[in-house]
């Protein structure tokens, strides 16, 4: 408390005493005990009010010692136990963490990581992935603007995330403690297997395998592709100390329709420490046939090439660009894209009334809108001869199928004739149009379905600019191509509307995310946000069933099924209110990425230590590591003077006390007839 505050308190005592004495003692005619009591009450009230105004603060200085943080980060992935290093890791951790000298000098804190990062002092070594990059990101966040060393106990074999060597802050030293047997063993490994998820019946599909060898002598191994007891391919490959990798390309026949599971294996007479990484299972879904799409146009335009490339980015699609008079049989195609129809398209429209093929009509400056009004009943066009640029606006409520906003509002405008476009029936609008900043209340991309026949309308040309702009924005055509593919998928299917739509893969690799999404629609085919969806997943071998709830997202319901073991599963999604169900199956392939290694990655961890000016240690050097920290003068505890200021009084209780004193004074005066 300052001298000024003390003087003010003393002055307050004098003022309160003087006023109380003057009012009840000096001016009083009869000096009774009641007068002295009232003077005392008035003194306390006035002093309390002055105390509130002064609000005296008590300042306290304390010295606090701040130690340098020392995070001990332990690899909790299953590769540690697979390399038989889990007991050694626990021993190392306890020895470092419990060292009293380290605890005196540092603020020792324990963490574990696998696919995620969290503080803990207990480890089970059951993580399904190793992500060392997540360690760097979390430490930067936790110890922001702090200089500290890090002890990283790991084998260094990362299976997910970015390259960790340059992820760590270079000003904070990292000291990797490398666990696992560093002795080089002879080992064959399928490093990577590239194969498409889909193949077409009676075609051949390619397989690309990258094989790796660790050893000091020349050996020969067989690379075999099999399915059950049938062997589809066998190749002999020679490895040597100078040739430690090999790439194998194979074409396999797609003879059976449906999900086909294969096994790739390296076979050798040599004895290996780890044979788990000699085998990889993979699956291919063989599809009966392609979707054939005809783009019909009487003119040449860049839109045609952009649409063809976007559609054929899905290997299930085949696109043919033809002129109106070149189509002989409409039944050869699953979808017709009619680009800027004119009277030349009359025969196609007439023949399609019988064929019933779904259409995607795209208009532009060369479209004959009077002819188009005669040939379809979904939209009515009243157009002028003037050209206009139309910007797009995404409709978040669109629910015919799930699609994302790829940034339509920022894409270049499409050009079409100026006029009025009105819907004649039930039309679902995905994109509406704007002229500069003015809403036209007219569709730009719309869909209709009448008596099982589906149609889509894109009302403007130059959509090739959309594909180009998405590549500029994302360095990839993928977002635009997926958007177009979903339109084609809608048109390629003549299925009637379903109230429950479920999306899932036919197979997954064990250890990767297994997510199933669903949409439920009411009778008006509007997304139902109050639906209650559950899923029952049954292992077809053990017959064990697990039940989960699907959680609502922005425009769908989702469930994450991570943790299921390899095998075949059947599942049923059920909407509890309507009892609507959807049943299907998927396969989880046996592949544990954490069992692919026989040695720690000494080279990578050494590179990390060098990058951060730290040093690599091995388990038998843990005492040297501790000594290094204790002798390092760079990390010293800092004493901080902590100043805390607290009010001498609690103003709320003081106000209550003042109120009680004033009320008591009033009642005493009233009782004694002094009012």
UniProtKB/TrEMBL annotation:
The chain crosses the membrane at residues 6-25, 37-58, 651-668. Gene3D superfamilies: 3.40.50.880. Keywords: Membrane, Transmembrane, Transmembrane helix. The keyword Membrane applies. The keyword Transcription regulation does not apply. InterPro entries: Class_I_gatase-like. This is VWA domain-containing protein. It comes from Flavobacterium sinopsychrotolerans.
């Amino acid at each position: 408390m300052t001298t000024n505050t003390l003087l003010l308190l003393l002055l307050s005592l004098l003022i309160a005493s003087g006023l109380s004495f003057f009012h009840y003692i000096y001016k009083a005619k009869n000096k009774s005990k009641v007068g002295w009591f009232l003077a005392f009450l008035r003194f306390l009230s006035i002093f309390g009010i002055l105390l509130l105004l002064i609000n005296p603060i008590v300042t306290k200085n304390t010295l606090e010692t701040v130690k340098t943080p020392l995070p001990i980060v332990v690899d909790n992935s299953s590769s540690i136990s697979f390399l038989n290093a889990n007991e050694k890791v626990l021993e190392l951790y306890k020895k470092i963490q419990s060292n009293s000298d380290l605890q005196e000098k540092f603020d020792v804190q324990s963490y574990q990581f696998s696919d995620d990062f969290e503080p803990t002092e207990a480890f089970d070594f059951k993580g399904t992935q190793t992500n060392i990059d997540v360690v760097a990101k979390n430490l930067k966040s936790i110890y922001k603007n702090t200089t500290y060393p890090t002890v990283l106990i790991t084998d260094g074999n990362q299976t997910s995330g970015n390259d960790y060597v340059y992820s760590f802050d270079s000003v904070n030293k990292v000291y990797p403690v490398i666990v696992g047997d560093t002795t080089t063993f002879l080992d064959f490994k399928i490093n990577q297997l590239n194969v498409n998820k889909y193949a077409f019946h009676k075609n051949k599909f390619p397989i690309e395998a990258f094989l790796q060898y660790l050893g000091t002598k020349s050996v020969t191994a067989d690379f075999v592709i099999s399915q059950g007891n049938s062997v589809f391919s066998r190749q002999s490959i020679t490895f040597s100390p100078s040739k430690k990798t090999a790439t194998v390309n194979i074409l396999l026949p797609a003879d059976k329709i449906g999900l086909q599971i294969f096994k790739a294996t390296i076979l050798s007479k040599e004895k290996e420490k780890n044979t788990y990484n000699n085998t990889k299972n993979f699956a291919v879904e063989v599809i009966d046939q392609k979707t054939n799409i005809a783009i019909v146009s009487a003119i040449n335009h860049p839109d045609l090439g952009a649409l063809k490339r976007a559609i054929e980015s899905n290997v299930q699609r085949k696109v043919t660009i033809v002129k109106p008079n070149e189509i002989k049989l409409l039944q050869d195609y699953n979808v017709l894209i009619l680009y800027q129809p004119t009277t030349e398209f009359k025969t196609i429209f007439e023949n399609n009334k019988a064929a019933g093929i779904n259409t995607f009509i795209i208009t532009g400056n060369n479209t004959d809108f009077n002819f188009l009004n005669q040939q379809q009943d979904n939209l009515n066009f009243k157009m002028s001869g003037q050209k206009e640029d139309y910007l797009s606006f995404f409709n978040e409520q669109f629910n015919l199928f799930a699609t994302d906003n790829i940034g339509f509002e920022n894409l270049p405008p499409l050009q079409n004739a100026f006029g009025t476009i009105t819907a004649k029936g039930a039309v679902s609008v995905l994109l509406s149009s704007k002229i500069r900043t003015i809403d036209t209340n007219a569709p730009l991309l719309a869909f209709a379905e009448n008596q099982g026949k589906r149609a889509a309308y894109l009302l403007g040309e130059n959509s090739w600019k959309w594909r180009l702009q998405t590549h500029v924005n994302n360095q990839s055509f993928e977002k635009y191509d997926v958007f177009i593919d979903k339109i084609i998928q809608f048109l390629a299917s003549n299925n009637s509307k379903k109230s429950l739509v479920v999306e899932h893969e036919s197979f997954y690799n064990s250890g990767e995310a297994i997510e199933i999404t669903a949409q439920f629609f009411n009778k008006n085919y509007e997304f139902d946000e109050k639906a209650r969806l559950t899923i029952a997943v049954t292992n077809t071998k053990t017959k064990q069933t697990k039940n989960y709830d699907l959680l609502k997202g922005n425009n769908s319901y989702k469930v994450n099924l991570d943790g299921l073991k390899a095998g075949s599963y059947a599942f049923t999604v059920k909407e509890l209110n309507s009892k609507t169900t959807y049943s299907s199956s998927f396969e989880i392939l046996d592949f544990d990425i954490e069992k692919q290694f026989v040695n720690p990655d000494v080279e990578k961890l050494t590179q990390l230590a060098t990058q951060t000016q730290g040093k690599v240690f091995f388990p038998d050097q843990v005492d040297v590591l501790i000594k290094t920290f204790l002798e390092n003068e760079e990390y010293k505890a800092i004493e901080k003077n902590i100043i805390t200021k607290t009010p001498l009084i609690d103003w709320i209780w003081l106000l209550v006390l003042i109120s009680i004193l004033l009320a008591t004074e009033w009642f005493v005066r009233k009782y004694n007839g002094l009012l």
